[in-house]
Every structure is written in structure tokens, then in C-alpha cells.
Amino acid sequence: LSLSPPPSLPPSLFSMPSSRRTKKVTLTQTDKKDRGHKSAVIDSIRSALDTHTSLYVFTYTSLRSAHFQRVRRDWSDSRLFISKNKLTQLALGRGEEDEYRENLRLVSALLKGSVGLLATSRPREAVVEYFAGLDATDYIRAGAASPSTVNLTNADLSCHPVSMLPQLKSLGVPCHVSNGKVVLLTGQEWRVVGEGRQVTAEQAKLLGIMGVKLARFELKIKARWEDGDFEEM
After folding, report:
1. CA gap 115, 121 in Å, rounded
2. Is residue 35 predicted with pLDDT exceeding 90?
3. Nearest Cα to 49, choosing from 227, 219, 230, 224?
4. Cα–Cα distance between 71 and 141 in angstroms, integer?
5. First-to-last CA distance in the chain?
6. Is residue 12's pLDDT more than 60?
7. Separation CA 213–CA 232 (nearest Å)
8. Residue 24's pLDDT band (boundaries 50, 70, 90)?
9. Burial of 218 (0-12, 13-18, 19+ CB in 10 A)
10. pLDDT tens-digit profile of 58-94?
11. pLDDT, mean of residues 203-229
12. Which among 5, 127, 160, 233 is least buried, having the fewest CB atoms inside 10 angstroms?
């Protein structure tokens, strides 16, 4: 008689269920270097979640490296992330079945537009107070919408030497020299840009020459997560 060996059982019957924290994220991109970068970002976000007690979602406007570096220095004991929203959602999870920690899917749902994350162990009051007082102005960039109307006057032009006439004309300013001063051809006032209008490269350069700062750097807290508890702010 020939005896057949007993059928082997599926390995899954003996394997332990994997926890959410050890769940691997599949990246569909084929570029090896790109996959490595994305995996590093995901690991960094998850490590920050394991290290710190709370996570904040914030929105930002007119983000400039100089201002943001100051924020990073002020929060050197915490972690700040501004990554692609879809990649951050992969790190946090989009649903109950793949969220890294409980209710992080609610954080993921808010990751639209210009947003970032702050992972910190500082108390809620300290975070709210800091972000409420964070406000700085800067020169607006071409392509941005002007928050207000800006007009150029003869008084503004009088601050500049006659030698700047060619440059001012190249930027579209209708001006000439009269009595040794640069003055407008169109009277006492000329509009540089209107409220809500997209700023051109020439307008942005002219506003810089005038010393007018229209861009406002702001970070505003949108939501807070801590150990599964989630609140919009």
C-alpha cells in the first residue's frame, strides 16, 4: 500500500495577523528612486505619529522658505510636513481598513489644497497661540491674485532717480521727466494692479521697486488629532 502525505495547510492559518503599524503600503510607481523617496516620506510621517502625542492639519498661504524655516526652528522639537497630499494620505490611510491609527482617515479627508501637518507633543494651547500670532508680509509673486488695488502716484515716483526712467517705462509705467523729476503722463495717479487681478511679472517687479508687500504668509490650524480623538478647529 502506498500512503499519500497529508495535504499541507495554507500558511495563512499559522501566520499572526499584522498590525496597522506594520502594514506595508504598495507604491504603484515604477521608478526605483521615486519609490524610495515616497517610502521614506511615509515612514517619516508614521515615525512622527509614534513619537508625538498629537497631529495638526494646517493651511498655508504665500509660503516662503525664509518664513517657513523660522517656523521649523521654533518647532524643532516637533515635526512639520508639507508633502504631496496623496502621499500623505497613503501614510495616514484613507479608510478604516488601512488607516495607520484610529480616525486618521478623518485627517486624510482634509488633505486638499495647500495644507501641511504638524506632529508635536506640546499642549493644545501652545499650538493655538503660536499659529494665531503667526503673520508676516512679503512681496507678491507673478501669477498670484492681488488682495487689493495698488495705485502709483507722482509722490511715489519722486522717490526714484531720473536714471530709473527706462526701467519704469519697460515695466509699463507711463512716465517722463519734468523739472528734473520722474512724473506720470496720465495725471496724478496710475493703477498698477486691481484687486483680485492676477499679477503679471512686470507688475510684481514694479511692486517690488515700490516696496509694496501684498503677500501675507499665514499658517492656520484646521484640525487636531490625538490618540484617536479628532476635532476640526
Report:
1. 20
2. no
3. 227
4. 21
5. 76
6. no
7. 32
8. low
9. middle
10. 998 877 777 888 899 999 999 999 989 999 999 999 9
11. 93
12. 5
Amino acid (1-letter code) at residue 21:
R
C-alpha cell at 164: 530709473
For residue 21, pLDDT beyond 70: no
Q: How many Cβ atoms sit within 10 Å of the Cβ of residue 136?
A: 14
Other CB atoms within 10 A of residue 214 CB: 20
181-184 vs 215-226, strand pairing mode? unpaired
**Pairwise CA distance, residues 25 & 90, whole Å:** 7
* Residues 74 and 122 sit within 8 Å (Cβ to Cβ): no
Write the DSSP symbol of residue 78. Answer: S
**Distances from the Cα of 103 to the Cα of 95, 100, 230, angstroms:** 9, 9, 7
